[in-house]
Write a structure and sequence with these properties.
Two copies of one chain form a homodimer. Chain A has about 260 residues and is of the alpha/beta class. Chain A has one domain: Stationary-phase Survival Protein Sure Homolog, Chain: A. In chain A, about 25% of the residues lie in helices and about 30% in strands. Chain A is built from seven helices and eleven strands. In chain A, strands 3-4-2-1-5-6-7-11-8 form a nine-stranded mixed β-sheet, with helices on both faces. A two-stranded antiparallel sheet of chain A has the order 9-10. In chain A, helix 1 packs across helix 5 and helix 2 packs parallel to helix 4. The radius of gyration of chain A is 20 Å and the shape is globular. The N and C termini of chain A lie far apart (about 65 Å). The model of chain A has no long low-confidence stretch (mean pLDDT about 90). At the A-B interface, helix 2, helix 3, helix 4, helix 5 and strand 7 of A face helix 2, helix 3, helix 4, helix 5 and strand 7 of B.
């Protein structure tokens, strides 16, 4: 038990090996509370639960640690942790993950892991989302843990200047092959969607979402470049979606004239 | 029928009066296809459906228009519209809404309406999310329609320079009280959360999310200022969450040294 209070969450639920790997590091640095969704919430983005009540269930999963399952989304988990479980006590750091799979580039928009961390940052809590570029359930998180610890220590000791959210991705490499840390920007990549069409036993069509990640942003200052070249990527992130460069060019919209009749 | 193809979507579903009001304007400007979720999806953010199949159901709701209900989130609707319904044909404009209630400031993060529009922008389609600052189901959308038409015309004719997504909010005022359009930035406001706690008939606690919108960003260049002063707000928006100012100050992270042992 240290002097710090650390909230640990994810989007894959309490049983995810990535969560266990993150808790192992966090409990070396402070007093840990774990709040995770009670069902998988990958791809939930910044969804919140408005029209349904939320449930919290205290569970014994990590010896000696307070842990709760929550019926909602990753963002709901963070809101409940802050306001119901911890009753607005100070939280020194929120860490989310370790996600099984990349949340680099545009994935930050779709990711429940990063949305949980972003929600904490909106609440004024320094936050880090961690993801390992390995989708398999039995991924090896040891190299990731070696980088996660000093990153958490740095943020606990120094804060995160000008921003309260870091998106950290770790390449799928053994520790000795990882070259270090790169602080970078989000690559302007995207998913090229596809749907697999099928027919159910009653003759009705249905569709499965699938897709291919496309990156044509090949500069060497992006997270995709860093990961492809053996670095851990750290992207300082935020919640301001304004495109400032577009404001002056769109000022002409202020001169629109209304139609006489709709 | 005009020369333009316009995709109309929302997060409140096919029966929402706001959708009807938007379709009325859109069909005056081009060939319209409507794709809406088959259940309310407010607060769904940028959620996508990964682990379930998606259904599409053609419906006769708008006389003479193609319309489909989709079993997924607003983002799923846009993906299905582009890739399955329209089979990757050119879409000249995607409009989402009219949302019943504000999506100004930080609401863009939580909003299904704006996430649908953002997804279209990620697909390279010029997109506008429209919201009226009136939560009631029988809100009066006439003043909104008067502004929506020239905004859509402007984007169809001129594009949206440097950005493909506009977040448009309309104050709850009669047409003659609205002072015009302001192109602005997203106010740095947030929700102060609260939970209402209750107990179910079996003695188990549950929680309802509630909250209060707090804005301490009082400059006159924000959407919240524009709306509070009688203007329609237009915020050019994007999907790059990088906090560029923080990158130089965080470069010290590149010097972290690894622990000898985890």
């Amino acid at each position: 038990m240290g002097p710090y209070r650390i909230l640990v969450t994810n989007d894959d639920g309490m049983a995810a090996p990535g969560l266990r790997a993150l808790v192992e590091v966090a409990r070396q640095l402070g007093e840990v509370v774990v709040v995770a969704p009670d069902s998988p919430q990958s791809g939930q983005g910044h969804a919140i639960t408005i029209s349904d009540p939320l449930r919290l269930n205290k569970v014994e999963v990590f010896e000696g640690l307070e842990a709760y399952e929550c019926s909602g989304t990753p963002v709901d988990c963070v809101k409940l942790a802050k306001h119901v479980i911890l009753k607005n006590q100070v939280i020194d750091l929120c860490v989310s993950g370790i996600n099984h799979g990349s949340n680099a580039s545009i994935n930050i928009i779709y990711s429940g892991t990063l949305s949980a961390a972003m929600e904490a940052s909106l609440e004024g809590i320094n936050s880090i989302g961690f993801s390992l570029l390995d989708y398999s359930w039995d991924a090896d998180f040891r190299a990731a843990q070696h980088y996660i610890r000093p990153l958490m220590e740095h943020v606990l000791q120094n804060g995160v200047s000008e921003c309260q959210l870091l998106n950290v991705n770790i390449p799928r490499l053994p520790l000795e092959k990882i070259k270090g840390v790169r602080v970078c920007r989000q690559a302007d990549a995207r998913w090229k969607e596809n749907f697999v069409e099928a027919t159910d036993p009653r003759g009705q069509k249905y569709y499965w979402l699938t897709g291919e990640f496309i990156n044509e942003d090949l500069e060497d200052d992006t997270d995709i470049w860093a990961l492809g070249n053996g670095y851990v990527s750290v992207v300082p992130s935020g919640h301001d979606l304004t495109n400032y460069r577009a404001i002056p060019t769109l000022k002409t919209l202020e001169q629109i004239s209304l139609p006489q009749k709709i």
